[in-house]
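Appendix B. One record, verbatim.
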Amino acid sequence: MKIAILGGGPSGLYFAISMKLRDASHDITVYERNRFDDTFGWGVVLSDETMSNFEDNDPVSEKMIRDHFAYWDDVKVVRGDESMTSGGHGFCGIGRKQMLLLLQERARELGVHLAFESDITPERIEDLKAANDLLVAADGLNSKTRSLYEDKFRPEIDMRKNHFVWLGTHQKFDDAFTFIFEQTEHGWIWAHAYQFDDDTATFIVECGPEVFKAFGFDKLNQQDSIALCERIFAKHLGGHALMTNANHIRGSAWIQFPRVTCESWYFDNVVLLGDASATAHFSIGSGSKLGMESAIMLADELNSGKPVQQALQSYQNERKLQVIRVTSAARNSTAWFEEVERYLSLDLMQFNYALLTRSQRISHENLRLRDPEWLGSAEAWFQKQAGSNSTRRPMFAPFKLRDMELVNRVVVSPMAQYKARDGMPNDWHLIHYAERAKGGAGLVFTEMLCVSMEGRITPGCPCIGEDQVPAWARLVDFVHAETPAKLCAQIGHAGRKGSTRLAWDRIDKPLPEGENWPLLSASAIPLMEGNVVPKAMDRADMDMVKAQFVEAVKAAAKAGFDMIEMHAAHGYLLASFISPVTNKREDEYGGSLENRMRYPLEVFDAMRAAWPSEKPMTVRISAHDWMGDAGITPEEAVEIAAMFKAAGADAINTSSGQTDKAEQPVYGRMFQVPFADRIRQDVHVPTLVAGNIYEPDHVNSILMAGRADLVLLARPHLADPYWTLHAAVELGDEEQAWPAPYEGGRRQANTLAERTRAMTT
């Protein structure tokens, strides 16, 4: 093939090398607009795993790079006068200029043509496209090729809010990758520092937009900007200066990070590579890694014998998924640093843990592999904060709300069973909830217990009132007698989402003709076309329903529940008042958030007054309607949580969505945790969280980082009522108690698990 590569950065050069290794007859030219030794970064960070991939692809260039590495194993966090170090992270750095020179040398050895100081205009791009079998656009995050063919690649560029500047220094940071956080008169500013050769370290300075403007960085020239950074970080620089290699740029050289994604990575014979196709934030150090590993896969596909178009399609299909995993982690890391001031008041132990796990790529048990001593100290710290002398995982730490004490932080999430008859719970509910209480969870939620027959979601939903007290009391008495678990009654009213079919019979669809019942909601908006149109509640309706909630609370107290939760999420009745998507009222209960919260707060106050003062009460909210600005946003959820906290809520159960069928949720592992995290830090209220949480690692990392206080698992508990007991076995935790009749099973499970671990190590 005759190939033109635009961009002589790491990804472009490494693609040329990879192609030549697979077929020396390829005619390849790399066009670079800068001189051969120009570079505008400092160091490049690569992991041991990445270097292993490079060695498999080209041992020669891998050795050339490795011979110039600076290695470190530790990550050090410095916050003011405090510092903490953890080990086992296994990273290495090399100067970007040195790396480019090595890759240029290797490319020339293999017969690649290198054309520096090449002016690449739109017309030249078109000419190269026509004159070559393949045009590879490795021309960076400001790719001219991507801009020229924008209608083909359909890029999205999200400019992130923090400002940063790439600097260098001769101060040594060769003992650890170092994060330095300094509190100034204008707020927090921080540095990412790491060694990349014997004499030089990268020193990236970053801050939020308010601090950036308060210091006047937007108006300073480069030298004045650097001098100010030297003063801010003087005690960490040991008298050494900070240096720039961006003298060609006017102004201060501070920039904001553009997150680039493209719908398509190729068209015709043009393909994007590296930052031109997708960018990863510098805080996870994966930009060069992504581009160079993409170069390997692209070379593999193009030399597989497939037609070019098929090869490019395969490359896009396979590599795009892999890149998304890394860029998603980078997105998490970016967001963490954008909100870092939220966490800087945490104890340094918890702050350090949160920083290390910010991207979700490093898990709790992975940290144990890296530095078991440090993680052990972190777990002991967490247990001590919980009032325990244990050294067990965070999920096994106790937790207290008012007078309710939980033996651990694992919670069985509310899950509708649709097995009630005429609002009455039955043996299904006894067995279902009792099994999960026996399974080791510290707290078990009921499904939403409806305050009236008209407040049910489906004919299979249970109620809670005087008639249901004996059945619920039977469950509560069994759980209290046979397990250490506590029980929470989630109390709610379906609102416009009522009078629908069972989940396995066309969920959310109305009941057959003649079987539907009248509905109430904040406004007369049906759930979907064809569903029952609810009545917009008047004051008499509000008083009636509030009284029903109070009677439900009294029934829950009489049945002996340990805790209650007011369900004000997922588009049900109370949530329909809170969300502007479902509340179109023009009276004092509509319009502003204060007005929309008026009735839910009325109901909360009445429920709290009827519930024993020594027992806790929580509220479940939807922290995001996933409806853009038309619905509740995470920012507004903080205000909602603060109002409920002020009213006396002991904790906020943070959920999202299910308000309207037009929602566009973004799912992923632990996808609702950021909402709980934000509310916990900003409102200073305990939070509970659910949402695609299914591994002990997830639970432990959420808790240890301080992102929530209790973790709810739904589907895992449907699949395994004994999830907590089995998680303890998996983790090698032999302190977990089992029901006495199951002691033989506990011993066998631990023995088998120990045998399995011995065989795999």
